[in-house]
Amino acid sequence: MSDANVQSPTARAWQRFKRNRAGWCSAWFLAGFVLLVALWPAFAPYPPDAISDAQFHPPSAAHWFGTDVHGRDLLTRVFYGARISLLVGGVGAGVSLVIGVLWGAVAGYVGGRLDGLMMRIVDVLYALPSIVFVIVLLTALNGILDRFQARGWSGETARGVQLLGLFVGLGAISWLTMARIVRGEVLSLRTRPFVEASRALGAGHARILWLHILPNVVGIVIVYLALTVPAVVLYESFLSYLGLGIQPPQASLGSLIAEGASQINPIRIYWWIIAFPAATLALTLLALNFLGDALRDALDPRSALDQSPVR
């Protein structure tokens, strides 16, 4: 018997993932990028909001990404903005994970009228324009926060509440597909012999779901979670570009791109102000999507990568 035949499913999935060059390189790129973004405040040469007289300096040895309209170092602001964007993407995907898995698992396991009611709610929410919902939510929240600030709320508290609202809004529109996927998997698993055997031995519904059904949907949940993160990051960047997401003095990649776009004029184009934030966002989204595709191929037990040549 060969080694491949005695390997565990996890080991075979790991081998398939390593053979996917795009996914493997993307994983290393994202790991290095996240580590750099997390550690950057410890050795950044300039504070992110340090205003100076060096406005619109092109990339140089002193400022690798140049400076912006206020003379702030763009490299530092890009890394700080990437940290905010990745945080929003991770938390938004986490909210999607919790709501989507619980909703889909309960609907698929219980079935019947409750399943029909829960999935009709999902269908109704699908019919709503999701990004418009988030825009309305954030606009209303901004109006409420303006009133509270007029009554003495600090700017720091208002920004924290706004960031929380952004998390909730983006997570609220990202869980629908997760719920449908989990429901479909649970529907196929709830009638399997191992579930029937556990039920015959007296296991409760919660124990069956937690110990027998949900572990069997972890693979597909991980795949969709990896594909949800770039979607949430893109949503956040779009909202920040419109001025509805992250507010000054904080910055995200979307707000940095908006600042760069505002400096484009017929007289002179300060290309670095928009090029570097846009390139950082594009590379991050590309790596996240490659990683999600590689995880899908690796965790699919019917994947043909075991028989295919190295990619």
Which SSEs are present, and which pair or pack?
Elements: H1 3-6, H2 9-19, H3 21-43, H4 74-110, H5 112-127, H6 130-150, H7 155-172, H8 176-189, H9 193-200, H10 205-213, H11 218-241, H12 253-262, H13 271-299
Helix pairs in contact: 2-13, 3-4, 3-13, 4-5, 4-7, 4-8, 4-11, 4-12, 4-13, 6-7, 9-10, 11-12, 11-13, 12-13
The CATH architecture designation is Orthogonal Bundle
**Which CATH class?**
Mainly Alpha
Distance between the termini: 26 Å
Please identify which CATH superfamily we are dealing with.
MetI-like
Q: Which H/E pattern describes the elements?
A: HHHHHHHHHHHHH
The largest pleated sheet is described as: none
- Strand segment count: 0
Total domain count: 1
Mean pLDDT: 84
How much of the residues is beta strand, in percent?
under 5%
Number of helical regions: 13
Broad structural category: mainly alpha
Rg from C-alpha positions?
A: 23 Å
CATH domain fold name: MetI-like fold
Helix content: over 70%
Point out poorly predicted stretches. Answer: 304-311
Overall 3D form: globular
